[in-house]
Design the sequence.
């Protein structure tokens, strides 16, 4: 009697994995923001349409992607952050596994445009299921990388239909941008909806966490902030943060934290 256990097709495996890594548009954006920060960007611009399901675009002025890397940039476990397991002991970047773009490309149409400082022009490629759909082509573009994610979950009807409100998804995206803007105050962030000129989040370059808290959450809370710093040599950790004083109160509290520079989503 033939066995009933079968090996899943690679495309099916990758789509299942992508659904776990990219649970909603805000998760996809979080991964792309971390890529931009790893590229030493000083400006990060985010544009969103229909809560990120129709369009989720990020533009930075970082190091850019070399033309020779375009072929595998969206494949799983392709990375410039490490070459052997021992490198994990000294990893200092947000990402290192090379899963983010791969996961996104299995559940959306992805276009990457990028230019390095030494390149005479930018290059562009479209991706599906981790692979370029056509040869990489030269184009105009500034230094840095633009990633355009369209029709997120186009091939996962149940997941796509689970998102009832574009406004709710946009609010979650704004929340992610605000938190990274506060934690990375030296980087200028902007967030806006596609087709609109006004921004919903805008923070300047070379700002401070306190100033960005004021921009994101208002001057009332910014006047009631207390900095905390702690270091424990025995447990080998250090922490720093900002809390509101006992004299400040609000209907809904805001709490977020970063562990080893990565936002802990909850």
Sequence:
């Amino acid at each position: 009697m033939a066995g009933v256990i079968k090996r899943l097709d690679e495309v099916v495996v990758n789509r299942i994995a992508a659904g776990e890594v990219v649970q909603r548009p805000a998760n996809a954006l979080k991964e792309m923001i971390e890529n931009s920060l790893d590229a030493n960007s000083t400006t990060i611009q985010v544009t969103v349409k229909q809560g990120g399901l129709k369009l989720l675009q990020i533009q930075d002025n970082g190091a850019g992607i070399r033309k020779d890397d375009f072929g595998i940039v969206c494949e799983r476990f392709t990375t410039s952050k490490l070459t052997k397991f021992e490198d994990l002991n000294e990893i200092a970047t947000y990402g290192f596994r090379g899963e983010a773009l791969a996961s996104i490309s299995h559940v959306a149409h992805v276009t990457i445009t990028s230019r390095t400082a030494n390149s005479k022009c930018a290059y562009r490629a479209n991706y599906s299921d981790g692979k370029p759909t056509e040869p990489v082509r030269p184009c105009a573009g500034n230094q840095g990388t633009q990633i355009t994610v369209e029709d997120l979950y186009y091939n996962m009807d149940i997941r796509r239909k689970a998102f009832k409100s574009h406004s709710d998804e946009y609010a979650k995206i704004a929340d992610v941008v605000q938190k990274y803007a506060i934690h990375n105050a030296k980087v200028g962030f902007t967030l806006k909806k596609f087709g609109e000129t006004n921004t919903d989040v805008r923070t300047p370059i070379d700002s401070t966490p306190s100033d960005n808290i004021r921009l994101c959450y208002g001057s009332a809370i910014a006047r009631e902030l207390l900095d905390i710093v702690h270091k424990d040599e025995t447990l080998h950790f250090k922490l720093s943060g900002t809390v509101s004083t006992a004299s400040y109160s609000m209907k809904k509290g805001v709490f977020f934290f970063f562990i080893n520079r990565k936002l802990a989503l909850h």
